[in-house]
Amino acid sequence: MRLLHTSDWHLGRSFHRVSLLAAQAAFLDHLVETAREQRVDAVLVAGDVYDRAVPPLAAVELYDTALHRLAELGVPTVMISGNHDSARRLGVGAGLMERAGIHLRTDPGGCADPVLLADEHGKVALYGLPYLEPALVREELGAERAGHESVLRTAMDRVRADLAGRPDGTRSVVLAHAFVTGGAASDSERDITVGGVAAVPADVFDGVDYAALGHLHGCQTIGERVRYSGSPLAYSFSEADQRKSMWLIDLGERGAVTAERIDCPVPRPIARVRGRLDTLLEDPELAVHEQSWVEATLTDPARPREPMARLAERFPHVLSLVFAPERAPEDPLASYAERLKGRTDRQIAEDFVAHVRGGSGPDESERAVLRAALDEIRVGDEAAEVAR
User: Fold this and answer.
1) Which of 45, 112, 111 is nearest to 84 (CA)?
2) Cα 142–175–29 angle (5° rounding)?
3) Count of helix runs (H) and strand runs (E) in the chain
4) Range 2-263 has CATH code 3.60.21.10
5) In the chain, what are the domain boundaries?
6) What is the DSSP letter of 13?
7) How large is the average pLDDT for residues 210-216?
8) pTM of the full predicted structure?
């Protein structure tokens, strides 16, 4: 069985205030054409279809058109909601769409209800696990703890139980939206940390032939049977070195997996350049980036005059300007920035407690209070976005 694995479309998202609707439309054209040319048996969309819980009308129109085109091809599509989607909104009309071969899986309670497809080797059960927010689904799933690993393991136990009751030789695929240990993150994924822990181990997906993952924007292989497709477009400059693609998966007679990357269209290259302003304006090696979307980091000790306007003369598509003045190692501003680099909100909060106490950090009970407060703020922000 041939499957086309994609995720993280983020329809409606812009890139530093530049609309990406045309680029997203071009990607969906490419997706439909690939499905036709490669004669795929199903398209898998592993969450974050939209960028916001309430997407703009133009994004909804893109989504609607893509689904109509896939239905007209007769290619079944299995789609789950991600942490950017409103599961309830995305799932509206799921029963009717099922008749057209569009299988929306947005209800955590239905995670063990597979889409059943067949080829010359028998049945394939495709299970859709929508994004599982631990605080919201723990009770419904009966998980022991309110953590990502606990709720995902509970959902996968249901999947494995259903699979065990099916005829021998039934192959299996699961779609999930999660941060799996070993994956490399970028700046454009929304934080899903709960209790200080976001990642789940890859062995959560043991027992299925292929796990089609979404959430991380870089295409990557966690294991031969556990893969991220990544986003089809770059959504932050941290993705400048990523090759955007989809996975073309062939599932053999006994569940053997063969994977091939299918490149996605690139609307415009993106680049990060760094140095003093005069160097960026004169360095001949940077000519290759003159038509790219550019993020420029200036290292001049003093802020130059009109840097953005001057950069735009050479790089007309410069979108982001960062100041990182060269400083001596003993400069207190340099050491402060270095201390904060790469630290989470929880770590910064704990460091603050230690600072005001003269070096005595929070104990375990106080850490629990800080984690709970940060989790409540994050879940509250997500709920407020859904309500808007």
Assistant:
1) 45
2) 145
3) 11, 19
4) yes
5) 2-263, 270-323, 332-387
6) -
7) 97
8) 0.84
